[in-house]
Amino acid sequence: MPPYKTSGCGSPWRTAGRLPQRIANIQSMRQMVQSEVYPVPPEFAARAHVDAAAYERLYRWSIEDPDGFWKKEAAFLDWIKPFTEVSDTSFDVNNFRVRWFADGTLNGSVNCIDRHLAAKADKPAVFWEGDTPGESRVVTWGELADKVNRLANVLKSLGVGKGDVVAIYLPVIPEVMVAMMATIRIGAVHTVVFSGFSAESLENRIADSKAKVLITADEGFRGGRISPLKRNADDAVRNQPSIEHVIVVRRSGAEVPFTPGRDLWYDEATEAADPWCEPVEVGAEDPLFILYTSGSTGKPKGLVHTTAGYLVHAGTSWRIIFDWHEGDVFWSTADVGWVTAHSYKLYGPLLNGATTVMFEGVPSWPDASRWWSIIEKHRVNIFYTAPTALRSLMREGEAPVRKHDLSSLRVLGSVGEPINPEAWRWFHSVIGGGRCPIVDNYWQTETGAVTLVPIPGAIPNKPGMAAKPYFGIRPEVVSPEGVTLEGPAEGNMCFRGSWPGQARTILHDHERFLKTYFAPFPGRFFSGDGVTRDEDGYYRIAGRVDDVINVSGHRLGTVELESAIASHPAVAEAAVVGYNHDVKGQGVFAYVTLKADMPETEELRAEIRQWVRARISPIASPDIVQWAPALPKNRAGKILRRILLKIANNDFSDFGDTSTLADASVVEDIIARRKAEL
Ligand code: ATP
Ligand code: MG
Fold first, then answer.
1. How many Cβ atoms are within 10 Å of 267's Cβ, its own excluded?
2. Where is the signal peptide, in residue numbers (predicted)?
């Protein structure tokens, strides 16, 4: 007997009785997942910003009259000089242009902070929780404004002006928000680098962005461990002459190397600075920030976002997709180094005057109940995280969750990769108590903010599906030949027509920008992801197009295969790649992480093959199942399949750019295991 509960093929025992709609005669997981629908709770729809009827009406308007729609949305911002022309856009690579609200002027920090002060100066902007339990801070809007103005003056005194780049290498502490806002207050451009990155990764981004000032901390804390941020910063700037000054936040208070003349202490400099800094008027199309992609597929690209279009898209969509209402407490667990955090942890809440939770640490330290304790403490209403974290917490079972009162939760969000239905159901039932819609929002650094999303008061959930287009977004499923497909279809995820929040270029490499996103399918933006659309017009992201596996002429998406494997009761997580196969062209190679205490046996391998065969098709059954106690992920928690692909093809050298890899020993371990099996 296997040590876990199992059952006949095709029987979704894990969810039996829990599905709102039990489907008879389930043939395959594909069908089962598609027919599993979670309606919008009527009481939720009743007070939502957007219900089903409003969605239909607004979406139609946004497509038929994009300029009219976005003009109305742009009234959300406070402008210095109003724009007269809404858009001027063309995706033709020979005549490419994307300009929104171009002759308007504004200041981002005024929109994010100043305009909330009259009503909220004494109200909390941030509830901060430190890595160590018990260490916390509350930052009011008034305090935030004071710090932002002072730091803006410090930057100015260091010679930073309009268009200059400020690099920010800080942990998740309120000062990161201050640093971003101070930068844009003076018309400068921020580039935030994840504080878990090495000196080398930071240096690469400084070299590319030519940052003038670096803002960092003495040390950072994550999961009880100390990271030597200032030492990394010193190493990173040593050979980067663009950096003239380094501003150091005292986080741990440890003694760290300090270069007089170049380095300044944040607290001393801001205390000495004037508490008012006149905001600089910038053009709508002036750059707001540069952000490097997370590097799942190779060398990160420095995407450039401009001011007004980005702020309109991020600010208005954040409020709608999370259905935030005045007084709600919002928490995004994303690190500040990712686009998720830019748009929906920092800019979205700031633009709307919302109270947010910031947490410096990791979900598993000191134990697996840390996140849930924070939700209880701050009565969090909207909780937004990533599938990778959910899967790791699922491994710990329900006990850590049950210790805490999560009844304040109303909306849950997921982003970063397709959420496998198994994790979706756990999130929905165990964390959300079965009552919270899940906002599985699909977008990219390139798109600036959301493109596909089940707006919670409007669109019923289907697990694993990012569902429907956001306003103003025109998704197309495009065949490899470039034909736009109608109805239920499978193909390349493209978007037709511009939207205000999209990135305008790759820094220093406009050619690459055009070639990557606009040349493959003329007239459309190409995301690089695969997608399927079902008979209800719901979209499901199928993974990166480059990762699609072609077995004997059948195209298989990695996400579907991985979701099927992860639905096996013994499995915690899986990653699938196609390896060179003499007969089939490509074979299916599955790396499988088992749940705690599950034995790595030959029987279990055979059973996993059978499990996939029954749920998808015999073609999809993995040819090779390789046990992997951990999978190689980047710092955003995404699986680096290009490394797994090389290993599957017995190529153990030259993995390309591995600077975004979170833990190099994981790769060594998998190689050793692979070699042992050859
Ligand atoms: P790089 O472009 O350097 O390889 P990256 O694509 O991982 O890095 P991001 O821009 O942070 O960097 O991530 C965007 C990608 O994440 C999307 O293209 C998609 O593959 C995936 N993704 C994000 N959210 C979702 C979601 N809700 N459902 C499915 N996939 C998602
Ligand atoms: Mg990408």
1. 12
2. none
Q: Does the beta carbon of 293 sit less than 6 angstroms from any atom of ligand 1?
A: yes
* Band of residue 35 on the pLDDT scale cut at 50, 70, 90: confident
Residue 541, beta-bridge partner list: 531
Give CA angle at 374 (368, 378), nearest 5°: 165
Q: How far apart are CA 559 and CA 571, in angstroms?
A: 15
What is the number of other CB atoms lying within 10 angstroms of the CB of residue 529? 20
Ligand 1 atom showing the smallest separation from residue 445 Cα: 10
CA distance 140 to 184: 20
Asked if residues 526 and 517 have their Cβ atoms less than 8 Å apart, the reply is: yes
Q: Are strands 355-359 and 225-227 parallel, antiparallel or unpaired?
A: unpaired
| DSSP-assigned letter for residue 476 | E
Helix (H) or strand (E) holding 672: helix 664-677
Q: Is the CB of 417 under 6 A from ligand 1?
A: yes
CA atoms of 436 and 428, how far apart (whole Å) = 7
Number of Cβ within a 10 Å radius of residue 318: 26
Beta strands 489-496 and 213-217, pairing class? unpaired
CA count, 13 A, side-chain hemisphere, 67: 11
* Strand residue runs (E) in 553-673: 554-556, 571-581, 585-594, 624-627
Give the number of other CB atoms < 10 A from CB of residue 434: 13
pLDDT one-digit tens code per residue, 539-577: 999 999 999 898 888 888 899 999 999 999 999 999 999
* 563 alpha carbon, closest ligand: 1
- pLDDT tens, position by position, 427-468: 999 999 999 999 999 999 999 999 999 999 999 999 999 999
**Amino acid in the structure at residue 188:** A
What is the atom index within ligand 1 of the atom nearest the CA of 414? 27
Compute the distance from residue 292 Cα to the ligand 2 centre, in Å.
Answer: 10
580/18 Cα distance (integer angstroms): 41
Cα angle: 399, vertex 402, 403; to 5 degrees? 95
Rounded distance from Cα 579 to ligand 1 centre (Å):
23
Could you tell me which residues are beta bridge partners of residue 530?
Answer: 492, 543
Count Cβ atoms within 10 A of the Cβ of residue 31 and give its class: 0-12 exposed, 13-18 middle, 19 or more buried: middle
ipTM above 0.90, yes or no: yes
Distance CA 225, CA 574 (A): 28
